[in-house]
Amino acid sequence: MNLHEYQGKEILASFGVRIQRGIVAHNAQEAVAAAKQLTEETGTGWHVIKAQVHAGGRGKGGGVKLAKNLNEVEEIAGSIIGMNLVTPQTSAEGKKVHQVLVAEDVYYPGESETSEFYVSVLLNRATGRNMIMYSTEGGMDIEEVAEKTPHLIYTEEIDPSTGLLAFQARKIAFNLGLSGLAFKEMTKFVASLYKAYVESDSSMFEINPVLKTSDNKIMAVDAKVSIDDNALYRRKQYAEMRDLREENPIEVEAGALGLNYVDLDGNVGCMVNGAGLAMATMDLIKQAGGEPANFLDVGGTADAARVEAAFEIILKDPAVKAILINIFGGIVRCDRVAQGVIDAYKNMGTINVPIIVRLQGTNADIAKELIDNSGLDVQSAVEFQEAADKVKAVLA
């Protein structure tokens, strides 16, 4: 589950991480009020107006701007709220902005220069350890840094049984070229950031940039946070932060129906029971010359109502040219699934794409007979290769 910047910063602050303070506003008038409040609390005269969407690269798309007075706060906030923000991480249509974060200006003058760093915490799946990734080259072009100068990207792996050790935090601060007060501040920052990552059950914390201010404070100017969905049952305070407006509406609808659905860019809809079989089915479609349009696991209760709901979800995608149903009948009987397919087909009326049904396992022979004698435009298959050949044929 992805969070907005302001939500990620709330989590960081709760674990003692210094953040760039800000207030969320939903219209231009609220933005002005937020700016006035920040001025009273922090003394800042300038404010940064940031679009709150689940996408990086907001600055490049015009979603992050500096306001030097209250008139500019009102004007900029009014122009950003309601716009479709297009960034390198959105579709061509972009994402609609519903709110902005009015933040304090932390690039204030001082005796020393400011510096921007990149710091993230995530899981290294290859080693089964958490990893802190960091660089001296923080800012908007970190992707280019990783591509063109990968030697400027450092990593520090952490054994989950011991947690982040003090020498590792010092090593990170040293590699970032810090000394004195800034060095001490960075070690505290890294320790608190790692604690926030672990204790919030996050899958990623990305801070870009981490700022060294002119008075050697270290703070998070941005925050990109993803919470592990599987841990939300014990992190209800974070589950309440979910913004459904930022998610794929078809995936949201499928989730409400109890279906495990992920939208993809292909042309063959998949309906499968079991995640492993679903992955194998997607491989099967690729080998047949198609592209999977979705990942859809209906689970172990593939009755008529559930199958009909799955059909409706798949057919919301206009790119779907065929549907492959691949069910292994272990706990669920294949004949019940077949009857569910037939009942769902009749309830929905005309379905204008070919349907291939492969049922294997308990009562598979009865299921095939039901499909073949239904009189519906549904093709049955028994073997994997047979199903692949029929997918290939309907796509030809």
From TrEMBL:
Binding positions (ATP): K50, G57, R58, G59, V106, E116
Domain ATP-grasp residue range list: 9-238
Record protein name field: Succinate--CoA ligase [ADP-forming] subunit beta
Gene designation per UniProt: sucC
EC number: 6.2.1.5
Protein's UniProt keywords contain Glycoprotein: no
InterPro entries: ATP-grasp, ATP-grasp_succ-CoA_synth-type, ATP_grasp_subdomain_1, Succ-CoA_synthase_bsu_CS, SUCC_ACL_C, Succ_CoA_ligase-like_bsu, Succinyl-CoA_synth-like
Pfam families reported for this sequence: ATP-grasp_2 (PF08442), Ligase_CoA (PF00549)
Binding site for Mg(2+): N208, D222
Record's keyword annotation contains Magnesium: yes
First-tier enzyme category under EC: ligase
Source species of the chain: Cellulophaga fucicola
Cofactor info, note text: Binds 1 Mg(2+) ion per subunit.
Gene3D superfamilies referenced in this protein's UniProt entry, alphabetically: ATP-grasp fold, A domain, ATP-grasp fold, B domain, Succinyl-CoA synthetase domains
Transmembrane domains' residue ranges: none
Gene Ontology cellular component terms for the protein in this record: cytosol; succinate-CoA ligase complex
